[in-house]
Amino acid sequence: MTNSSNIKTRKTLDVIQPYSPGKPIWEVQKELGLDRVIKMASNENPLGPSPKAVKAIQESLADLNRYPDADASVLRQAIAEQYGVAKQQVITTNGADELITLISEAFLEQGDEIIVPSPSFSEYDFGAHIMGAVVKQVPFNEGFQYNVDKLLEAITEKTKIIYICSPNNPTGTYIAKKEMARLLAELKDILVVFDGAYSQFADEEDYTDGLEFVAEGQPVIALQTFSKIYGIAGVRIGFGIASEEIIKSILKVKEPFNVNTLAQIAASAAITDTEHVTASFNANKKGRNFLYKNFERLGLHYTETTANFILVQVGPNGEDIYQQLMAKGIIVRYGKTWGLPEHIRVTIGTDEENEFFIDTLTEILNPLK
Ligand SMILES: *Cc1c(COP(=O)(O)O)cnc(C)c1O
Q1: pTM of structure
Q2: Other CB atoms within 10 Å distance of the CB of residue 104
Q3: Residue 122 CA, ligand 1 centroid: distance in Å
Q4: Residues lining ligand 1, judged by CB closer than 6 Å?
Q5: Which of 227, 235, 337 to mutate to test the pocket of ligand 1 (most atoms within 8 A of CB)?
Q6: What's the CA dihedral at 45, 128, 187, 140 to 10 degrees?
Q7: Is 4-47+275-365 CATH 3.50.50.60?
Q8: Which end of the chain is more exposed for a tag (fewer CB within 10 A), N or C?
Q9: Rounded CA gap, 135 and 130, in Å?
Q10: What is the mean pLDDT of residues 44-48?
Q11: How is domain 51-273 classified at the CATH fold level?
Q12: pLDDT, tens digit, for every residue of 114-131?
């Protein structure tokens, strides 16, 4: 008889680190016995879900005995119209996270390399690792700015994918359109995954969401999500836009019913909810400026953001400050996971949440005032 612990897992599992999500509100409430807990840790929409999406879900509940549409036809058509591409250029997935896994499964052989700017979103590494591929991390420049030359230098014959997250999570910085064009001009037979999860928050003139490069016929897949500005992270829905060939390859590894009915219906409604998107964008700008002003008042260095979160350097007591915030009911992300032990990443919240966060942080930093 074999003991279950003798059954060998694939070797590549040894290098996979468990994902560390922002703690859920209920857990912190229960652990610390707090009434009021606010989450500023996962870059969710503080205004709530798109009301149109909620209504659409409510109206569809009676049909849940049916399997979802395996082609997500209505939703893909809506996305295609919104972005001015053909429906065949769109793939929908169970969150953009699933798309990263599917891209990895479709393109990475064991021993292939991916290039990832560092620090960035951990799912890229995860996708590579499950395929036994190798992650090459390329640090950002000073101020977490993209360095295209360093990315180009990291390319080898084994490089299959380059990830560009813009605005980048966790830094909030972005790659300028011109720099993106320069990168693409130098590449041969390498897929670029352009992660625009926060693109709707960026309004800088030289920002690109990657779509124009897809339109040019470049080997780029623009990755998008409904979890951030659209506010429906809970139903899990993301999508990708690329050439028909690239999408066809990825569809080969997709499970038929990867996007559930409620997600399809919610996203189809959310994409038309310009009112909610505009309100979310404006609230984010206002909250951002409030937080900037107060970080300056507190003498804290922060990285200017094009997204809905801010990376702020709270100093050598970073971990303690993170813990003290938590003890007072404010969940943020501690930067140690990204090799930034002096930083925290805070999601821009509602006016009330931002004020509570700043008041609490002020108290922690200046206990006598
Ligand atoms: C949140 C996020 C995603 C997508 O998340 P899903 O909820 O899986 O759609 C993708 N990339 C980055 C950088 C993100 O922060």
Answers
A1: 0.96
A2: 24
A3: 10
A4: 43, 95-97, 121, 165, 169, 195, 197, 225, 227-228, 233, 238
A5: 227
A6: 60
A7: no
A8: N
A9: 11
A10: 98
A11: Aspartate Aminotransferase; domain 2 (3.40.640)
A12: 999 999 999 999 999 999
